[in-house]
């Protein structure tokens, strides 16, 4: 992975980044014209801009009042914070293994005056325990490998309430078709509510045992 022209010895999914700090800031314009401001740093994903995958995800996801949303691998928080701002009556749990990313996400919650969200730092689903969610969203760490992505999909299925939705964004060239097929195998369904710029947002819905019968 390269960032700023330098080779990094660690990935953004490293638990404790040792990269020298290089604070930055990015902005995201909401549909109503509100501008969200995000602090970033070296050692986190897409520190210089809101990446295209995240932008495609935010076109596809619309939380409803009362939804419990899990942002899996939240980074410095753009997806979870924007979703929380879009629907103040939902509650967003943001999780990342990267401690620097978690610190930034917490700072960005405060900067953008978001009160209906939290940040938990730890490994994937372990830190959320047996909670159930209406929606899981993830811009996953592709470089972590296929096995990690498949575990994220299975973990999402296990923690979604009946009728809950998983949204996963992935580059077309990095295995979108095979990931869609895998999600369909786990959930029994998969579609693509949004695509653009070489990215695809894939959605699966957890079907209740009653509906399967």
The share of residues in extended strands comes to 25-35%
Helix content: 25-40%
Uncertain residue segments: 1-12
CATH architecture: 3-Layer(aba) Sandwich
Largest sheet: 7 strands, mixed
Q: Can you count the helices?
A: 6
Structural domain count:
1
**SSE class:** alpha/beta
In CATH's first tier, which class applies?
Alpha Beta
- The CATH topology name reads Rossmann fold
The residue-averaged pLDDT reads 88
| End-to-end C-alpha gap | 46 Å
Structure, explained:
This protein has 213 residues and is α/β, with parallel strands linked by helices. The protein is 29% helix and 30% strand. It contains six helices and eleven strands. The chain has helices at residues 52-60, 78-86, 99-111, 146-159, 176-187, 209-212; strands at residues 2-3, 6-7, 24-29, 35-40, 68-72, 91-96, 117-121, 133-138, 160-171, 191-196, 199-205. The strands form three sheets. It has a seven-stranded mixed sheet, sandwiched between helices. Strand 3 (24-29) and strand 4 (35-40) form a beta hairpin. Helix 1 (52-60) runs parallel beside helix 2 (78-86) and helix 4 packs parallel to helix 5 (176-187). Mean pLDDT is 88; it is low at 1-12.
